[in-house]
Amino acid sequence: MPMTRPAPVAKVFACLALAALLAGAVPAAARAASSQGTAEQRRACRADAMRLCREFIPNVKRITACMERNVDKLSPPCRAQFR
Q1: By CB neighbour count within 10 A (0-12 exposed, 13-18 middle, 19+ buried), where does 59 fall?
Q2: Does a structural domain hold residue 12?
Q3: Is residue 42 part of a domain?
Q4: Number of domains present in the structure of the chain
Q5: Domain that holds residue 18
Q6: In-domain check, residue 1
Q7: Cα–Cα distance between 61 and 10 in angstroms, integer?
Q8: In degrees, to the nearest 5, what angle opens at C-alpha 2 toward C-alphas 77 and 21?
Q9: In sequence order, which residues have a C-beta less than 8 Å from that of residue 82 and are 6 or more positions away?
Q10: I need a surface site. Which of 23, 44, 52, 83 has the fewest CB within 10 A?
């Protein structure tokens, strides 16, 4: 039976991908990012996503899979988002 990912975690990665795409337009990225995931979720996982899964940005599914494969390497605040 396939495991489903909690919606908040998916939103974190969608937000990270969107923010990476809009990095040149900071105000636009901030508005778009705020519509997906909470500020706490973004803060908790942004550095880990950039450190561990940078090559997959902006592909949300691949970022999510990468983070799940590396869950033991995530910072404690980010790992808590997977619970």
Answers
A1: middle
A2: yes
A3: yes
A4: 1
A5: 7-80
A6: no
A7: 8
A8: 50
A9: 6, 9, 67, 68, 71, 74
A10: 83
